[in-house]
Amino acid sequence: MTTSVLIVEDTPEFMRRFSDAVLADPGLALAGVVGTGRAAIAMLDAQPPDVMLVDLGLPDIDGVEVIRHAARHHPQCDVLVVTMFGDDQHVVASIEAGATGYLLKDAGAGPIAASIHELRAGGSPISPSIARRVLARFRIGAAPAVAAQPVPKDAAPSPLTERETEILRLAAKGLSFETIGELTDISPHTVVAHVKKIYRKLAVHSRGEAVYEASQMGLL
User: Fold this and answer.
1) Which domain holds residue 55?
2) Is 150 inside any structural domain?
3) Fewest CB within 10 A of the end CB: N or C in the chain?
């Protein structure tokens, strides 16, 4: 029997990549591709798939809400998160909501088809860096994560300009610098210049670290 897969992703580049991975595997069947959380919930309720691939940075509602809906109403559906967000808040929230796998887009998510098969076989594919963080929490006996705290009204102003914040949000979705340039109507070289400034201001050295630090600071 084939495994039906619903893809919930709003970035065309990743929509295509994930769809191609599913369509190329004879053991998988593409149930649908949607770009919003509400559309995902509608698809889930209309015809629940065996597996749902979901990004967390959706344009309408939080991907965690989609995961929670799937876990409550369609527990037979395995949920695989594929996202740029690798911080504790997103990881723990997704797992607590019901995700059974968690892959990072910028850390070599690995063959999507293989991860889906692993899920259906009872496994939980997790990017190595995420697995290490989860294990570390258990080692130190960390208490369950609390809800994200709102940024205090008297919090320090963002170190990033509006343009830098916009570029970082797009980068958090896994977009290439060329694509970001097209969306923001600037050249890829200018995007790179902005990214270097973002790295310097946040004291980081990679896209994943920038997304993590910005998330911790409440900038995303």
Assistant:
1) 3-139
2) no
3) N
* 125 and 172 assigned to the same domain: no
Name the nearest CA neighbour of 55 among 19, 85, 16.
Answer: 85
Kindly list the distances between the CA atom of residue 16 and the CA atoms of 21, 115, 213, in Å, as whole numbers in the listed order: 9, 17, 29
pTM, entire model = 0.65
Alpha helices in 55-204 (DSSP H): 63-73, 88-97, 112-120, 128-139, 162-172, 177-184, 188-202
Q: Is the Cα torsion angle 212, 175, 44, 102 positive or negative in sign? A: negative
**pLDDT tens column, 164-220:** 998 888 887 767 788 888 888 888 888 888 988 998 888 887 777 788 888 888 887
CA–CA dist 162, 46 (Å, integer): 40
Q: What is the CATH number of the domain that holds 17?
A: 3.40.50.2300
| Torsion, CA 91, CA 96, CA 101, CA 102, rounded to 10 | -10
